[in-house]
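Structure tokens please, single chain.
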Amino acid sequence: MIITSAVKQKNNPDMISIYIDSKYAFSMPHEEYLRLNLYERSELTEEDVKRIREEINVRAATQNGIRMLYSKDRTEYEIRQNLIRKGFDEDTAEGAVMQLKSMGYINDRLYAHKYISDRLKLKPKSKKALMYELQKKGIDREIIAEVLDEFEMDESLIAYRITRKKFNKYDISDPLIQRRIISFLTHRGFSHEIIKDVIKQLMQ
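Here you go.
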């Protein structure tokens, strides 16, 4: 297995793309490339390639993932995508995610629980909106539904409270204000029925 080229990646010069027999084989951190003296070698055995892919690269990607998680909590999907953007291949990114899960660094269920709890305290939204936001972060729909069920959410009451807080100083009978309320609550994922009921309560 002949190393035909080693190219620094354009998007991340800290990563090297290794080509074996003129075909892309894997990517690896530049520091590991230097540490293993690959720049002085022209050949790799199958065992060498397997070790680099399954041990060295996954270890480096896992360390990258831990650094990401020091700054903020992230989902499995977010870590995986960030590692791929940093230049690791999909298999390496997946291996790192599995390592991080087994070490307790990533837990989508706990992430969803904390996210929903924080949202309900700071910026309440409907279940539909929360489901959408968490799905965009790559969390499985079933996990989100199960976590949402752990919260006692009266969507009508939530919609009423946030609307009253925002529009308390306005004349609710004004059609323009009502359209603004409809837009406000629709954006937060509340149903047409709940919106109508909120306007009715505020009118009273």
